Amino acid sequence: MIVDMVAVFSTLDSNETIASAPEIQASIEAFRLRRQTGLMRLSYSPSDNLYLFFNRGKAISSMFTASGETQSLRHDQWQDKIQTAGDAYAKTIPLSPLGLLLTGISLQMQDAQSEEIASSGDVAAFFKSKNRLVGSSLFQFNWHSSSGLVFFPDDRESPYSVYVSKEVVLDEIGVSRVFHDWEDTNCSASVYYPDSSVDLWQEYRLRRLFAYICKPMLDRFELLTGRALMDSLIRLMMIFASEHDLDISISSRSLVNQEVFFSSELAAHKYQLYLNEIFQHCSAVIGPRLLASVLREILSGLPEVDRGLLKTYSLVPRGIIL
Amino acid sequence: MINELNEFKRSASSPKALLAYTVAVVMIAAYIYFYQYAPLGAPFDNVILNTITSLAALGAAVIATIVFRHYTSDDHPRKIWLYLMIGCWLWFAAEVIWQLYVYALEEVPAPSFADLGWVLGFISFTIAIYYQYAAIKPAHIETVRIYAIGTWIVILLLPFLLLTFWGAFTIESNVDFYYPFADFAVGVAGLALIVIFRGGALMRPWIGLMVFGASDLLYAWAEKTQIYAWSVENGNLLSLTIDLSYLIAYLILAVGFLGQLKLLHHGLRQR
What we know:
A: 6-stranded antiparallel β-sheet
């Protein structure tokens, strides 16, 4: 059965308290002071919701959904909305950067239709029927008083899931057990696929590309130079990230990206800066020629669509992508 | 090239590097002085000259050992430096043995124990070069191995086959013929590594090896064509150039290793 989609996390639970504009401002201030990453949902009616996205306490984006339509609001617009729209059911949801990004994607995707799922036993079959052989997919579930997202990346990485109910917020790698073990009778589910016209999908793809370039580059650097110089690079990149207010770090041969921008342009710019810094340091040790060769080797396995993205956003120096 | 010059200027400004360069220049100056003016008379001038060369070889071996000790057991470059270190110690041993032969017998037999050190040293350097290429092309490690083994088969077989074909095979001539091929192979491999790492700090340790290849090749050619003996007899600058280039190769090798040690000590520089 096809039903109209309800935006994720818009579901209200009966215990939610109504907050006035000053109380909402106080909650925003609390987010800022705690340098928290997450989402604040302000529900003015079941179909009118204002979503504020925070990264380390800073409001980086906002979206307003009204009758199934989503629009992005500028900083002054959402401030104005809070001041003028009156009381709202307020819910703050701490999320990881990836969880926040996936939530944003689900809100930016407008044309999805959802299907009713009769029981938790049908979820696995739903995943199987909707997952494509190639490409990512983002599943959205809405129950009566809870919502969830399950993301399947297109590479060999593990799925990722976010689940929010009145009692619990789950934000974790893998498909959380709750998606296979629920008793609520009303479950609507929909699926989204990557769409280059959706800015947050582009940011996700840039995020993935960034990791795709960084990881093998760092592995090769360590293979060529050893642990001591790798540690030295890690230290320098930590200083660089701190100077540029980036929460990206390298730890035990892996990249930990705790950054989210809610803008593909900004994400590309920051990733470009970070990569350029890594390349400069690597080049000083292994030389520009070998660096270019290693980069070409890394990028040679990229699908055409990702190569296009690399060119569009100039993530790596010109001349590297053949 | 500008990067390399800037890097040289930067490294030359550090007191330790300055000391190393000064020692190298003093050794070169002393070598030229004793070579050209022979102030002490035979056999002491030769002892001094050979000692200077052995000291340069010792310097390279000691620095290679310190660099090797900087790496942990799971570091890939540790394998490279293990074999560079062994190669350097073998060559240092060969230099000392050769020096003792010269002092005791004047004429060095061929083959001698010194040759054993040089030959084993070449094998060790080949393994170091193999591990370096394995890190550069990890996806083509089998190909790198085939090239390394193939090169050695050619180096060992070609002198033997050519001398047999010419009817001139003796152990002595075979050993004499082996060096130019081994020098050429090591020189080319060193040159290729310099090209690959050009502009990067990892280029430094291989410069010396490349210069070694060229210098040794020059010596082997001059020796084979009797030009070297003629030059020595006539006090010609050619023999000095050839012998000096051998010392300089050791010094460049040592200074290159010192650059690697400095890099490991100080880590990467903040931009």
